Amino acid sequence: MSKRAISCFVPIIDWLPDCTPKTIRADVIAGIAVAGLLVPEGMAYAGIAGVPPQMGLYSAMAGMFVYAIFGTSRQLAVTSTSSSAAMLAALVAPIAAGNVTLYGMLASAAAIAAGVIFLLGGVLKLGAVSEFISKPVLKGFVFGLGLTIMMKQVHKLTGISGVQGNFFHLTWHIITSLSEANLWVCAVGVIAIALMFLLGAVVPRVPSALVVLVLGVLSVSWFGLKQHDVEVVGTIQAGMPSVRLPKIGEDGIADVFVGAIGIVLVLTAEGLAAGRTFAAKHKTEINPNQELCAMGASNIASGLLGGIIVGGGMSGTATNDSGGARTQLSTITSSVVVGLTLAYFLPLIRNLPEAVLGAIVVHAVAHLADVATLRYYVKLGSGSFWIALIALVGVLQMGILKGLIFAVGITLAIFMRKLSVPQDSVLGRLPDSVHFVDVARHPEAELIPNLLIFRPNGILFFASANRIRNRLRILAKPADTRIHAVLMNLEASPEIDVTSLEMLEQLQSELEASGITLYFVRVADRVRDLFDRSGFTERIGTHRILPGVDSGVKAFLKESSALDDLRTRES
Known about the structure:
The protein has 571 residues and is mainly alpha-helical. It is 64% helix and 6% strand.
């Protein structure tokens, strides 16, 4: 196998030899900056997932290193994300039923399951599956996810005891328990959040989360926060992870595989969106199917090392790009820095206040509550805002995994409705031209006497066939004029199914019985082949299947003129 062929599956072979001292220096600097963000975020996301902080760092180390070998994006940082962590917690918690040891193994097993699903998607070339969730639905789901994650951090930021339930239950519990809030905890959380947003606005290149983490650890001894009941992270298991296969039993395997499908769907949409965004910025390309394989390998490596599910995070990727990364050598550097943190620096973080971790989570997911995009949807006036709002409320009310199923259901319902209720147009000719347009939008267009030119503006298939037939029945029988022929434009249907074919055959028979001739124009090759195989072409005649609307009109006028001459001679 040639080097070029191998590089399609292992892209690092293609770009690594081209690294120069200049690009290496830029990548190392960017990688250190990314690690400064992902070390505190990885620990915070582990908290969202309900696992020990070190598991978030295992994921960052494994995900970034393995993706650098197999991924096609030069900027994408593959690590645990807020979305994957929240969905992972929703998946694992009911299965673990309070068993802490089983919980951790299930979380790692879910990463392996997600990796296998990613790999299957890449091998089967299912990269386009990410487009199956419409952007408004995904935006609403992610918005609701962000609000849910932030609300679940409020107990860390206030000292109020946590409670289970959906977003509204959590909100009501916080409101009714404000008297229990610890003002010292509140102060730590508010100052940490404000400082991160301030640093992000004033000095965006500074890793604000890392700054807050260090200050949080120091503040415990400076201000004696433990004496004021400010909870800290406590002892964290340091050292490098070992490779092991989680033992969860056959029932556990089935449960995590089913749940991982939904997580993979969201991570595919998020990761490919992030990869395409920065590929477009740098005028490069990514291979969606190879991206799925790279995500699969990264998740399997994370799971085997005791980590959690990883995906292409936008915050880490943006930091990587703004830091000047040229290749994935930057994320390899980040992986090494995270590994050094695991090996030597974790014990230093035992005095980190839980409120600071909660603040890091809130800062990291704040961008998910994208109000600007919802305002844009309102401005469009296309119904996208209401679709996004329904998905948002669904997550808040039903929870994360059920909310995801609900969001996908909305997408499928919208898709089926658009297909089954197609728009259509009656066409007329613009004066002194051969162009035919929708007469409803162009009143100046002229109708051809005794001819109805009809165009379905959507795919003709089983769910829309009868609606098209009924619509034509109405249009072909107006009260004030006589239709001699119907010219049906099929340009919107690259192919049709058996139901549609039978509908067209019935329609042709009905129109013929009423003395109306049926013509077809702009018939795709695959549709024409189906007409030929079924014998429909022979029944209607090849002279009534024409390449364009203008040629169809000419054929009608010619045939109409010939009939008029015949009637004149007979009379």
